[in-house]
């Protein structure tokens, strides 16, 4: 159930025997992609690391995942049609040539990308992606970089900020696309949507 203001989200519960332990967002994405391409149910994931894990307050303690202290959450899943090929992501999508020049487009399902708080309002169970899109001048990029760990880089007049369940983007010039930190190639078009409560995770 999509999280609502003032309501509890998630429930106590350990990782089931059929669950899969992953140590990064990239490992989680790989499990999702294998299941989706085989037209099989995605197993419950036990998170030991990655930006989604950090967003959910995970501790990286595998024993906790199998204990009564564990928490289970329904998580939204990103689906991205990248130049016509379908992929999935659990934490974030980034399209860029460089962090230092040109356009940068970020779609956050999790709050964090490494040490950067790129989605200060992002919540992986609210049915929305937090989109930041634009190209900053070099001086503004330097300032923004120092503010990224605290999530205070936005708002900015040269950045478009949106919270949506789906979006399309033309990338001209083409940009390199990264899903959960993994480069999947350079692309000209993106069509992205969020699948609410499509994944169950335990931390």
Spell out the blueprint of helices and strands.
Blueprint: E1 11-12, E2 20-22, H1 25-37, E3 45-47, H2 51-55, H3 62-65, E4 71-82, E5 85-89, E6 92-96, E7 104-108, E8 129-134, H4 138-147, E9 159-164, E10 166-179, E11 182-202
Parallel strand pairs: 2-3, 3-11
Antiparallel strand pairs: 1-4, 4-5, 4-11, 6-7, 6-10, 7-8, 8-9, 10-11
What report would you give on this structure?
This protein has 203 residues and is of the alpha+beta class. The chain has two domains: 66 residues, no CATH class; 119 residues, Tumour Suppressor Smad4 (Sandwich), CATH 2.60.200.40. The chain contains four helices and eleven strands. Strands 1, 2, 3, 4, 5, 6, 7, 8, 9, 10 and 11 form an eleven-stranded mixed beta sheet that branches. It is globular and about 50 Å long. The two termini are 18 Å apart.
